[in-house]
Each structure stands twice: as C-alpha cells, then as structure tokens.
C-alpha cells in the first residue's frame, strides 16, 4: 500500500482514542458510553439532525468534501470505514491496541452524531465530528490520556511499516474542556503530521482532526474553537 494510504489509517487509529474509555494506565477494561440520550429524551441530548446543523459550514482555505453525514454513530460512513481500516493495520505493541481503536467499544453505536470533512490542495484534510452524550460522559472522555508506553509505536499495513510518535499536551480550555494530541508519522520517504482536538460542550462531544504535511497544533486548535463557537450558536 502506498504511503499516502497509510496515513489516514494511522490517523484513524490514533484519533479515535479521543473518545476512548481507556484509562492512561494501560487498563484494558472499557466502560461504554450508553445511548441514554439517543433521541434527545427529556431534553438531555440532541438529535443527529440538530448536530448536523451545528457543524461548521465552511473552513477558510478548504473545500467541503461531499455532504455532511449524520445519524447513529455506528452507522456513519466514516465510523464504518475506520473500523474496516483498523482491521487492516497491525501494531508492533498489541497491548496498545486499546488506545488506538477503543472508541468503537467506548461509544454506543446508537448515539446521535454528525460529521463533516474538508480538504485543500496541499494534501491537508480537516474533519469535525459531533456526538450527543451526557455532560458527565463527555467530561470523562476528554479527561482520558494516552496509555503509558504507547507514545511511540509502529504499524504495518500489508508490507508497509510506519513509525509513529504521539505528543499529548496538558488539558486545554477550548469549550468546556479539551484535549489535544499530535502524531508524527514516518513511512518510507513520507513524513506527515496530524493533530486532533477533543472538546466538550453542552451535552455533546466534538472532535476536530487536522492532518497533512503542514498540519499544526495552532491550526487544529483554532479550527476547534471555530467549531465550538458554531455549535454553541446553533444548539439550544
């Protein structure tokens, strides 16, 4: 597989840890975030239609890639594609697999969600995902950390090996609390960076990812602030 095909897989493997229930100490037990707010019952959550309306309409310098997708979390194309890509990748540290792909186990597939993707000619891709959930659950997920010993790892897709290094910043203040994680990937002659920011708002969790050869933390966090502002304007 070509190097440019490896990067999205690695970003998916890493970025999905943003909604992981893994504890930072390597504990492999996961406590699912259940869909108690699935249909905005008693005003405790949002519908997928509301979340789609709260997504960013545009990102300066980027073009929207297709139409936004919304519905139950497990039914989103991006989630289904990530699950398929995760199955293709092999890690040199199997014990770190929980940090890479636990989101599909940690977040109930029935939770309302929406996602939009943007791209630009430099090979950079930005993605925003909103998932409705109780405030306490969102707070717990934002508070997670990369497990000890999993800051560096290697992945293999087919015959192609890639090396990755994760940088996790201190807890942030975007929205009602945020988490920023960066990853540098070296695959053959390809050297690419990715950043993702997870933040919580009123009864929802937002994840903004930015990856490409020129992706920066500052740009990812700026995009996350715009995403939060937009959601706050739209969601009651």
From TrEMBL:
It comes from the Bacteria. Keywords: Signal. Residues 1-17 form the signal peptide. This is Lipoprotein.
